[in-house]
Amino acid sequence: MRNVFTLLFLIVSNIILTQEESVIIYIDNSISVKRASKLSEEVSKVLDESNDVGFLIFGNAPEVHVSKDGQRTVTTRYKLHHLEDENLRNNLDLLCLDDNESQRPQEIVRILSEFIYSQKLVVIRDNKQEQMVNLELHLFFNISTFVQKKMLKEVVKILVTDLKLREGKTNIVIHLDNQDEKDHYNEYIDSILHPSKNITINSY
Asked: Which residues are CB-neighbours of 89 under 8 A, at least 6 positions away?
């Protein structure tokens, strides 16, 4: 009988733990499309550790509309996939071959912020932001894009600050396609290799 209660406890604990954790994979493959197989391989490694709880997002350039009276509206664009989708792994190679347009850092922040709020991973209570789940954020960039657009400062740190992401509940991994192997890129990465306890950089 004790074994039955132990088993039930473990099952319930696992369900609760799963509900309190979420993985978000964000991919900017506007430059890395020519290395789609390598990108797919790296994403697969993340999927293997995700327990199929979370989302995969391919960002894209925003749509800009100007009305007849000159009003300008910007619509964020991205392609969303649930990690629990059984077909995701089978289609991953093809998805990584899709050549999306490059996004500015501000648009990446907008896409991720709006999505995180929409999924209630972070909510606003009593005019204060509260992180509801442990969040694992994987960001895939080409190393040149990451360096030239100052993604650490203009995306990662802004997200952490704006969403009030807590260090103890957030883990951020930056995955860099480093095919260029240019010295000044590597020197820059080395200089920020340990920017914080919960932010790590993985070059592949």
From this structure: 44, 47
In sequence order, which residues have a C-beta less than 8 Å from that of residue 183 and are 6 or more positions away? Answer: none
Q: Mind listing the pLDDT tens digit for each residue in 135-167?
A: 999 999 988 889 889 999 999 999 999 999 998
Phi/psi at 30 (5° precision): -65, -25
Residue 8 lies in a domain: no
User: For the chain, what is the domain count?
Assistant: 1
Q: Are 60 and 110 in contact (CB under 8 A)?
A: no
Token pair for residue 153? 């400062």
- CATH code of the domain covering residue 139: 3.40.50
- Cβ atoms of residues 17 and 47 within 8 Å: no
**Domain presence at residue 5:** no
What is the C-alpha to C-alpha distance for residues 180 and 185, in angstroms, rounded to an integer?
9
Contact 159, 113 (CB under 8 A): yes
113 φ/ψ angles, rounded to the nearest 5 degrees:
-65, -50
Torsion sign across C-alpha atoms 38, 42, 47, 49: positive
| DSSP annotation of 124 | E
> Where are the strands (E) in the chain, listed by range?
21-27, 54-66, 72-82, 122-125, 128-131, 134-142, 170-177, 199-203
CA distance 139 to 157: 13
This prediction has a pTM of: 0.82
Domain presence at residue 2: no
Tell me the residue range of the domain where 78 lies: 22-203
